[in-house]
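Write out this protein's structure.
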Amino acid sequence: MVPNSRAILLAAGAITGWLPAVVFPGLDARQDGRAQAIQRGKVVYEQNCAGCHGSEGRGDGPAATHLYPKPRDFSAGVFRITSTSGSGLPSEADLLRTITRGMPGSAMPGWDLLSEADRIDLAAFVQSITGFYDLEEKKFFSFYEQAGELKPLDVSPEPPSTPESIARGKLVFRKAECWKCHGDEGRGDGPSAPTLRDHAGYPIPARDYTSGVFKGGSEPTELFKRVTLGMPGTPMPSHEQMLTPAERWDVVHFVLSMARPGAQQMAEQRRRSITARRVKPAQEWNDPSSELWNSLDPTYVALMPLWWRSKRVEGLLIRAAVDGERVYVNLQWEDPTENSTAVRPQDFRDAVAVQWARNSTAPFIAMGAGVEDVNIWMWKADKEVEGRERPDVHTVYPNMDIMAYPEVEGWRPGEDENVKRALAEMGPRGASGWQAGNPVSEPRPQSSAENLAARGFSTLRALPTVSTKVRGKGAWAKGVWRVVLSREIAAAGPQEAPIALGTHIPFAFAVWDGSAADRNGQKSITIWHDLEIPR
């Protein structure tokens, strides 16, 4: 029996908790000089941020091609989330808050996995590169030096949110013409929405308030800042002069009245520690729908589309078990459509992958970013053959399949059994991909999962068949995918994750939604999480 998946995810979100108000005592406690902090921050930046923002902070890292919204170009001095009046520049505390919490609604994850000291140094480094180099004067001009002392916005005390303030906010929403972009019901579908562009000329969607996801946070004070200051670099203007503080608070209450409860918590990336349950060996652990899995509490982790969209897979429920011989990872996510065929050019499969770091200090999340190997287990829905015939050209296009192999000469439409029998007798002869050991070309794979390795973009490769076996099994029912991926606990190959009893290992996840045409780098991912494997 499949319980209501929305209820599952909301319950899991409640289990994980909510990110409390972000306080940074280290900002005032720092004793060393700023130059040393910037130098330390540069090291943190190169390891964790340059992959998206680029080595010089111009938003041109190797991952930028796959991302939308685009990574911030610090050399432009344009930031979305600020709390300062006049300059449009974020304070160090603003930067630290964004680094810590990320920007839900984009591919910018939260970095609370870094120590507070590292995040403070990173914020100092970002400030140091926010500017431009003048070729004529051969001098770097800092936007922060030009702005001088930043003036914090004076946020008036929040009045109570009442039905009356919400009703007033609806009127102010009309008065300020917010509806032209955000729509009458706050769904981001106003008449001006299709024409919106950011400062760099990219299309930018108006915020859909009903989704409940806000880049700067959903706390009333944060939304008050957005209404007051606007969002620099976007069509969202400042209302500091147009609206009184009381009117701005009424708008905030109206906007929050439209927001889906709990959505912000489910979208924010926070590092989780998951402990594999020590269990007795049983064949049922290979079955993702087995009742045995219900005895293990799930952990919810948020997903973020690299190319952001409102209709998306929001997160995963994760369970893990170890029986002394194999480690099992059970993944569950909500997907209203089963996409298990990828034969036609217009079709794309559902899929999920687990990415493993090869030491306790995980590299940049993007497949190692060319610095270090990562091990990837990938399950593909179209490879799940148990209990059904695997879709292929002759099943998707009946009566149109032309075989040129001599073994099937004389084949006629409807004689599929003869084709399959002939191909089985022929083996890989005449099929170069199959003969070369390419797991994608294998017509009868032993598992729906592949064991892969990568070191940055465009380096994904299958590991030799002699490597430790990775197995997978998936099942879709009533709008929910359940997948189990497992591997032997044994000496790892040179490019495999060193999984062993009594170890701690970082892992991350990716989901491809076939109905959204996800493939290759178009996918939703998580940040690094931690798996504890007991002895």
